[in-house]
Design brief:
Structural class: alpha/beta
Order of helices and strands: HEHEEHEEHEEHHHEHEHEEHEH
Helix content: 25-40%
Strand order of the largest sheet: 7-6-5-8-9-12
Shape: globular
Number of helices: 11
Oligomer: single chain
């Protein structure tokens, strides 16, 4: 029952009262290239800065990798294999133990947008489909990156499609990415029931490809509901986080968090229908606990590997949610 709610385009209506309906008839279920382009004005209020502000000499961002660069970073105890030319003789003499200087190199920072277009993303009971919010958030972040002179790339994937766009500078690469989002085949195929195995394989394969596309020091923004994220996928994220800055935009629908008020609800995916009874308190509690456990697992992953987690509900304003998330992150 829960799987049906999460994986299909749902049309939900109360059989008893229109006031208790949880599906908006005016819900947004698709995007257009023009609507994504129009977000460039809104993106001016987004500050897509790194989590740590960097010096401006030789590049806009300080590399997370220590080496022989222009900017002194710290002194630490000498380790076998360190370059003897970087020994800090003053600290060595003062402590009686060899110490070496570390430097940080100034580098440019590519921005990669990882956009999930699997079947699970074509669902909403309020606001807009999760795929719509993902596309809108990607457009806002893309415009912000371009306005700040970043090199922008992307990876758009579904169960049956995989598109990679290498990071490039300027508006044309962004417009190309937005065009790929607006005409993605998934917009026409979202009525197809999702296969959990195919969904999981698509996510794992996309994360594997992302590791090949991402250059060390990149800012990677993953826009997804992270459905079917398993140990293999979590391990891929952990590997990416070792050499890149990751921001996970977790997109969910209010119905996934909490069942609607007690009653009877008719559910459909356009072809099949069923009735959902939500009066059972145990069912409601188990449903809530399952969502909370999934969220806690994702939060623990992000805390462990220093990734930013930004929640975005289908009934949220994506600009406002990104503004709040980026403020906390910076």
């Amino acid at each position: 029952m829960i799987s049906l709610l999460r994986r299909n385009k749902a049309q939900i209506a109360s059989q008893t009262s229109s006031d208790s309906s949880v599906m908006k008839d005016d819900g947004v279920v698709s995007v257009s290239l023009d609507s994504l382009i129009a977000l460039h004005h809104s993106a001016e209020s987004l500050a897509l800065k790194p989590a740590r502000i960097r010096a401006l000499s030789g590049g806009d961002y300080r590399s997370p990798f220590k080496g022989r660069g222009m900017e002194f970073d710290e002194v630490r105890a000498y380790s076998q294999g360190d370059d003897v030319r970087t020994l800090d003789w003053r600290v060595t003499a003062r402590t009686g133990h060899p110490h070496t200087k570390l430097f940080r190199e100034e580098r440019e920072r590519p921005v990669l947008l990882f956009v999930d277009m699997r079947c699970a993303m074509f669902f909403a009971t309020q606001g807009a489909f999760k795929a719509v919010r993902a596309a809108q958030a990607a457009a806002l972040l893309g415009w912000s990156a371009v306005q700040q002179g970043e090199r922008l790339g992307g990876l758009i994937f579904s169960e049956g499609s995989h598109i990679e766009l290498r990071p490039r500078r300027g508006k044309p690469p962004l417009l190309h990415l937005l065009q790929k989002l607006a005409v993605h085949p998934a917009w026409q195929k979202h009525n197809t029931a999702s296969d959990p195995l195919a969904s999981r394989i698509a996510l794992n394969q996309a994360l594997t490809r992302l590791r090949s596309v991402a250059q060390p020091g990149s800012l990677i923004v993953l826009l997804s509901d992270f459905a079917d994220l398993n140990e293999q996928g979590s391990a891929q994220l952990a590997q990416l986080a070792r050499h890149n800055e990751l921001m996970l935009v977790d997109i969910h629908d209010p119905l996934e968090k909490e069942l609607p008020p007690p009653g009877q609800y008719r559910l459909g995916d356009g072809a099949n229908f069923m009735t959902l009874y939500t009066s059972d308190n145990r069912l409601r509690e188990n449903y809530r606990a399952r969502f909370n456990q999934q969220q806690e697992t994702l939060q623990q992953l992000c805390r462990r590997y220093k990734m930013t987690l930004l929640p975005l509900a289908t009934n949220d304003n994506p600009l406002r949610a990104l503004q709040q998330g980026l403020e906390v992150r910076v």
